[in-house]
């Protein structure tokens, strides 16, 4: 296309040039040959052995260590920060060429930072901080000096969040980015929302015809390919006009924005309560919607890495720099261990009453239930009143309160359209926003719902038959246990989604994760199994609960659930605790992980 002297580049040209600019930042020696790229397209699964065979043994050894081991070896000078950064940058470069998962590449900046860390260690004999030399990847909402942030919007290219001449363009760090740098981390890439007009689609490396989830799906895909062991994402909710659940070109996406990609890609994630970690200077959609705010989330290949990064950040006392945060230090006393844990009782959600999970998810619930019972723990059915359908409606109303105005304002900057399959649902303009009085009424509904849900949780003490946990409003005090009966459930176990990783455009029901956002609860995802075409067979007599449930069961290539389409897809579940229970729920997830390993029964 040839542009006239006065014509501005089309959004297509801007998007194409941006994507090519990102690709051009991969060093020539890290460019994969056409034969490898062609072979990747033919394979359903490009994780594990396939990508390992493209790397050196040393690259594989470094990138498949967990965070704590990497940090230890760098502190002891068994590995240099430069060698670690180079290995992860190289593997991330390969991952992007195979999977299209990166939005921003700043490998040169990362390797130079690693060299400086090595020099500091050599000169002083001490690491910079507890994350010294650790490569950490970021979702493309976090600002990093010297790096652009587009969040998938073409109109944000060359700007600061769509605004020009602010002097902040590529000259701003998010507060949590400053924290990571002060702790010694090496930042090297930013990951994409998984369907937008800049990068197109990012698919699931485990089963390439399926989605990697969103909106922090680029991080999930990169971790599945071991191009990252630890990354930051965000977690909020859906935008669904006309009651049609949707996957968007931007950050307003289904509730569960770190949990869904973690579950789909076979990794771990934690969604903390929103006021635990700083959102200061982090780009966002609908930044003024604070009724059900977005939360910073963390994704990793191990639970120990999740603990490491959260504990390290909290040690910097971020509430002193961000007044929106709860001044809550890390509470070691909340953490349980296999030896110290009492008998635990879990509320078990097999179905939320709206959409029944597909067979692989139902089997995952059964596997985890069996494993925890073998470990001496118990479950009770979780049937809250008010129900999850009521909560999902409240949540959706918050996320839709501006009628889509923020979305369309960002699209207008470049003239880019919504992704094609969604344009027909949204039209070409925002709807009427909610009035202030309506928004205030919604806030009253939220308050009432949270209070009623808490009352239901407390009422389970009458049926759990576990030791009592005395009620306390002191967030600094961890759970304590006695032998008297009557402790409410310790956590809830429920699906992350009603299916394993799904065919793009076929995700219809986000309520399993949305309810956690609405309540501002803590949630950790745990990998349980993989879908199997020989085990996870459909019940031909199943009668859908409603129209959405029917759509969910047709969300495949065949008229009903098709085991072949999901074969090999990871299946995770979420362990849900109350507000600000990050330490406690993370330790419970580790206990359940150990129970699964001991049980060794992940196929039945």
UniProtKB/TrEMBL annotation:
Assigned keywords, A-Z: Hydrolase
MF (Gene Ontology): hydrolase activity
Entry superkingdom: Eukaryota
Domain Amidase: 85-237, 255-586
Record bears the keyword Hydrolase: yes
Residues annotated as the enzyme's active site: 139, 215, 257
Keyword Phosphoprotein carried by entry: no
Coiled-coil stretches noted in the UniProt entry, renumbered to this chain: none
SUPFAM superfamilies from the UniProt entry: Amidase signature (AS) enzymes (SSF75304)
Family statement: Belongs to the amidase family.
Protein name: Amidase domain-containing protein
Organism: Clonostachys rhizophaga
